[in-house]
Amino acid sequence: MKSILWTLALIQAIIIESYGQAKKPTIMVVPSDDWCISNGYVSKFIDGEELLTIPDYSKALSENSDLNNVISKIGELMSERDFPLIDLKAQLDKISKDKARTNMKGVKKSPIDLLNEMAKADIVLKVFWRINSLGPQKNVEFRLQGIDSYTAMQIAASSGVGHQSYTNEVAILIKEAVISNIDLFNEQLMTHFEDILANGRIGQMVLLVSETSDLSLNQNYSFKNKEASLKEIISKYWMPRNTEKGRFNLDENSENILKFSQVRISLYGDDGWGGTIAYDFAAWGENLKHFLKNEFNIDCSLETKGLGEVEITIL
Description:
elongated
């Protein structure tokens, strides 16, 4: 009997350990925006009519060996704590190859949005550092920020100044400065991620009626044995059944627009063939698009804005 109980306890421990390892958020380490700006690694991007200055990660990685070493060292610290890592340079190389293969001339998304959509990291870890010299000795000022990729909100932070050292290796200075704070920082990351596991990812959805459409969100349809407007069907039927624990806010409600914020969706969802896939707002929005087509023969287009916002337009 003791042998059986011991075996069951061992199996349970293995399951718990495996579950814990599987539920760490994926991390991608990048230089902070202000580090890129202060070091001249920026590019220009036209967003509509606005000219934006954005970090140029590719230029920074190709010209600054310290950055490569710092990213590697921070990644090493996170990997030692079982966080799955997504490599920044590898993702940028994939985007470059895709552009070359598909000749993406008409793409309107910023390089940062393309990177986030390609990498799909749960959390982007932004690192800033500055080296201070006092005679032959040096120390490093550092700042780490954990950014939720879906909301762009800061969910963890750590900063400080390392001890004086005679080494010239920036990565070593960074490791020595960060290591005393890294576990508390990781606890902040996990607190946020555990909330996501329990309550779903956070994002937003906008449903629009195009100017050329002859439809309206006030138009009535017969659905589930009752007459209701399209916006009622979406906001009162589809949204509660397709959000985690029915959580969302309806911020705008008119005949041509429905705007939802604080939308919570599961990390995993139906792949359409009876299986399960990792979920994002693009996949979630496709479900609404298919619902409108299948139930009411309404055609829609779908566009994502980063990982956490989807815009569906009724054509």
